[in-house]
Amino acid sequence: MGDIYQIRVVGFKGETKTIDVATAEDEFNKTTVSAFKEKLIVKFPELKGAQFRMMFTEIQLEDSDTFSMRKIQNKSTIFLIIRMPGGGGGERIPPGEDWSRIHNLD
Description:
The chain is of the alpha+beta class. The protein has a domain of 59 residues: Phosphatidylinositol 3-kinase Catalytic Subunit, Chain A, domain 1 (Ubiquitin-like (UB roll), Roll), CATH 3.10.20. Helices cover 20% and strands 25% of the residues. The chain is built from three helices and five strands; from the N terminus they run ββααβββα. A five-stranded mixed sheet has the order 2-1-5-3-4. The mean pLDDT is 85.
């Protein structure tokens, strides 16, 4: 029996789980982030249908990335980060303006 190539994943709540990815180095290196996400759902069922990002070092992983592209190796750690709705489009307060005056909080 050959080696099992694995990735450690840190979930939203800080829990760490190990995911079996491949039984051969070449297969591991060619694994796409999209294919890896499918394996994640088995260990993290709460991810099904969820909007989340995966980070390796300081890099956000994209679905089309392969492990070799991002230099992800056996036993590397990937972090899951939930996507939050919102961002942008809100009222901007000009520099020097008093926020409480604009929103009548006095």
